[in-house]
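User: Predict the full complex structure for these chains.
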Amino acid sequence: ECVEWEVTDGGGSEIMKWNGWGYSDSKFLFNKKGQAEFTGKRYRLSGMIIPGLKDWMEGTFGANLQHKTPATPLLTSSAVQPATLNKAFLEELKSTGIPFSHDAEDRVFRAHGHCLHEIFALREGKFGRVPDMVVWPNCHNDVVKIVELACKHNVCVIPYGGGTSVSSALECPPEETRSIVSLDTSQMNRILWIDEKNLTAHVEAGIVGQDLERLLNESGYCTGHEPDSMEFSSLGGWVATRASGMKKNIYGNIEDLVIHIRMVTPRGVIEKSCQGPRMSTGPDIHHFIMGSEGTLGVVTEVTMKIRPMPEYQKYGSVVFPNFEQGVACLREVAKQRCAPASIRLMDNEQFKFGHALKPQVSSIFTSFLDGLKTFYITKFKGFDPNRLCVATLLFEGDREKVLQHEKQVYDIAAKFGGLAAGEDNGQRGYMLTFVIAYLRDLGMDYYVIGESFETSVPWDRVLDICRNVKARIIQECKDKGVQFPPLSTCRVTQTYDTGACVYFYFAFNYRGLSDPVHVYEQVEHAAREEILANGGSLSHHHGVGKLRKEWMRDTVSNVGVGMLKSVKDYVDPDNIFGNRNLL
Amino acid sequence: MATEAIYPHRDPMLKKRDDFEDMLEERRNSSDLRYALRCYTPVLYKGLAPCKASMLKSMVLQSDQLHHVIGQVSRETGRAADDVQEEASAILEEMAHCLQLSTVRFFAFTLSKVFKTLFRSICVNEEGIQRQAIQEHPVVLLPSHRSYMDFLLMSYILYTYDIALPVIAAGMDFMGMKFVGEMLRMSGAFFIRRSFGGDKLYWSVFSEYVKTMLKNGFAPVEFFLEGTRSRTSKSLTPKLGLLNIVMDPYLKGEVYDINVVPVSISYERILEEALYAREMLGVPKPKESTSGLFKARKVLSEDYGSIHVYFGQPVSVRSLAQGRVNRCQFNLVPRHIPRRPSEEIQSFVNDSAYRLVRAQEENMVLKPWVLLASLLLQNHHQDQTAGQKRGMVLEELTAQAVWLRDMFREYGAFLHWPDHVPPSEVVSSSLSLHRGLVRVCEGRVQLAVEQGGQVKPGEPHSTVTPEEELLSQAVIVLSCASYRNQGLHVFLRPALLASAINAASSNLKQEVFNSFSFLRNMFSNEFILCPGATVQDFEEACYLLVKTGALQVTQQELLVTERGQRTVAFLTSMLDPFLQGYQVVCRFLCEEATENLTEKQFVPAVRKFIIKHLLAGRLRYTEVLSSDLQKNSLAALLRLGAVQKIKAAEQGTLKVNKVMVNSLEDTLGGRLPTQKAVGARL
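Assistant: Here is the predicted structure of the two-chain assembly.
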């Protein structure tokens, strides 16, 4: 819809930024006139002027266009630690003909995900422990060979898919003394077969979300799995982290979509013998694999459910007088089990933020209409512009049912004081999902750092957790000496029968702080503690990685950790998959 | 012993306190009527309009918690849910406040008149009031409780400063006063039964009512941590029920934080002064009745000096709980299902309660009279021992008061001694304010006890029996003691240490500590001693005595200095009445307690025993007659297991472990070293 698809090649580094989010040609900047614009041609917002962004940044963060913090423009290879190579491994690898590299740029590119501290360090040109080499297997058998060699020569392997991790999962453990091989799955990106009778597709795990969707679309199908990172994240990564997609209400999360998984481990290949839709064969071994975060092996091939492409899609949006009403509406929608493909509720701050990202309107008429709408909502309906909030909706299916469904949802919304606010607002909301990650890079050019994190929480706790975590962030920033009030905002992004997924965003202007990343990490840590104290989960779909593993024991109990450990000990006794995530 | 542990000594002298301003000054200079009718526009929590009483009731009745409990009660008793619901509604009706501005205005007017006649000034720290008015989080007000006046006074102050009016938890006994009860209700009081032990439904309605008001920030919630008025002016050990309730919304994440504000109200003269003394001597507490209040008012048409009200630093419940409570414990059971608080939470609430009571104590303003009462009492006891009735030379009293003033200041007391006035004037004006309690005669001052010394048996003495005589003396002594008690918290820890040094068989630090720890444990029902803070208290006591040059602490020993003798003597004799009192109670239990002594009979029986000893001259401290002391010592013995409560058919009887009680008595009397007496228990 809003993205011009393009297959990303494995090397990646030319068309992708090495020290920021996404494509090199797409970024926010302030032009000579001091107006914000978004460059490139890939997105709907590309090439447009965003007049409100400057004021919003100045107003929200106290940022100033005069105070810049530009990133180090080029990667200096000499700053990268020299590679520790395992000669014997290298020799044998060469004989297999699998491509590899120990070029500094290739290694640095695969040494990080997109946590704030990772990007911040890259922008400063600082690199910690990075992989010593990168290998590009082309198929399942290549992976089998690589893992065999790694075991034989005691080499540490870290699987790498799309590199969109936000849990420090890709960081190389600094204490690792063995040679670290980054196993890049990007060349394993084919759809091996499509089974139209059973509606399944067998796909190599290195395929990136947008390619998978585009290729399936060509045959009239889709998986419907659309995480916000789908432009760059890979199927294998989804499986390894228990990913969730925006449209899970129709298609399900990754655990619902997966029928069969093939994973290469130091003990050999693990897979099931059939593709029955459900089995009663003891604990589901897929659940050892899903969420294993690269600690047990490499997922090479996955059979997934596919669906015929939807006939009709319609965006929508609803304005509520306040966040409480909005949450009550989402709860009711979930209770009646009539959630559209996607339903997301932004709080007031995010609503304002969305407003600031409106591109310049081309005609006086549109701006007049906008004015009229604002007038209607705030003056006529009496909504307080500092309290109102917006839900964005996406309906999918056949046309008639969509319209019917739409009416049902809007009727429920009306009971909670919600007013329909048009398709355009809804669509823009979803478009922002893709560009919001670019915005962090702009902030970092002007002393603003920030991040998002998520949780899942029972319905009765949603309002409490939103209020308390936002307040905690503000308080912690104050206590830690942040000079400007932070942006602390949230949205409810998924609904379930018994609870919801909540996303928090926070960002602040770090001028005057000597160690902003440390302050940032302390605040995020405190915010996570607050989440847990308020009945939220450690993660809904980002995973644990190394960032959150200190809370694993409290989360799954001692016995739980013991269970996971014993699986790890059996499958990978020599810790070949030594990224040290999770446990 | 961990006395080497670093204890962060804050120099009490450095304590920053706000300035006071006299509220009555403006009342004396402008119209009370205009004041009562003025525009009242307090800042509201999050800009919320206050909730109508009826709306509040329906919120409570529709709450998940109450629904759950109603269902439970209906299942357990077989009653129809509607029936139980109705009962809940009736309970709420009985309980709920219905704050009306018109009533508040009425009180504002009448109280202005009353206050101006009774008091010279009502001094408040405006900064403190404004601090708590920043309604970022729901507010709980915790005033100290010494008088019926307290809560009207609080509302009066908040009204004056244009601050949101609180809703106040009041005991049901007020409801006995038909008209007054309703008036209080309309000025924001809500009424709770004194005991509702096992009544699930009552508890549920009550806690939900308080939480609903608090969570939504409809009004600050005010209650008395001490549970009841302290008759002795000592802070009472805190009651935890309401504190548990108000902390719950934070612990369950329903609010981000709650600010708790300790408020210290100190009266230069307590209106109920003699009433309290009589009550403790066994004249039963009259049921609160409207006519009684008026009678009291008649008696009280004299000068009651000034009142000081100090709003302390708000305490954030979140910061109190930081690192103490794991809030995840509420994750696995729906939050509306009432559960007994976990041990972790109980101990957290208990510790917090002690901290808050100590915060109240610290900000109590002490008047010169507190020092004078302490000195006069000591002198009275000395006179009694010597069989004289000489009193103190006024100059000597003044000199000693100045000495004591300086000591109090060094201990960090919040003492209001007018420095620009010569000490002799300070003393004489103090004495004249309390002329009911002291007599100045030929330059000598003594307590206004009708007859000093003992009445010789057989001597005709009108119709007054020696016992009546004794009791009327005791009224004066207990009244005086209550003023001394106002300052107890200041020197309690040094006094415990001084007594410990006296009792210990050597100067060895460890031995003194053992002795200190024993006394502290013994008296923890009597005074505010935070549980588990023995080492801190010991360190604090050492610190203060060293600082004032009374003590030298070496690696191994504690040595009282030459100039410290006087301090130590003073401190020891401050605590002596309590030490003696506890011993007498022990003796009673050993000598006279029968198999079927009930709890109810305990106080009258021990009183009889004490009167006997006093009259026989075997006991010098009349104040031991205080039922408060007797009850506290029994509570301590029960806690230590020296006495056990045996549940009998009608009432609980007391089973005394005479060996243990006897050895406790001997240890208190210094006849037995501490370790042997109670062993591992301490």
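Residues 508 and 557 of chain B are 5 Å apart (CA to CA).
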